[in-house]
Amino acid sequence: MCPTRIKGEKMKKIVYSLLVAIISSLALSSCTNDMQLESAIRLANRNMPQVIDEGLTCEKVVNEDYYVTYIVSTDEDVYPIDDIRESSDLIKLLMDEELHSDPEMKDLFDMCKKCNKGISYRYVSNQTGESFSIDFEPYEL
Predict the structure, then answer these.
(1) Does domain 8-140 have CATH number 3.30.300.250?
(2) Domain locations along the chain
(3) What pLDDT does 134 receive?
């Protein structure tokens, strides 16, 4: 059965699972330049893909212009892209709460911020290829 909205405990599970996958996949020790960041991303991608939850798989991490971007494949039968889009404010809020409550997560985001990079979570439909991103600018980290 396909959910019509993502909320409550299911939303928390998505956010927590994604954050755990990120922490375990990206071990940044310090970032003083883009070469170090590229090296850390290569290391992270050795652990990809990672199943976050049924219907969500983090496929890879990429260094884009202003973001470290996590590409997340979304099974539309479980997590429709439209539901993620409609719930994006809540998803971002829950991710932000996790950031401030988890010292390891805060350290990760602080390191990305030092490299003047935001974090982006790009959800990509496995059926249509449609995507939707939830972005954190460096000043939000």
Answers:
(1) yes
(2) 8-140
(3) 93
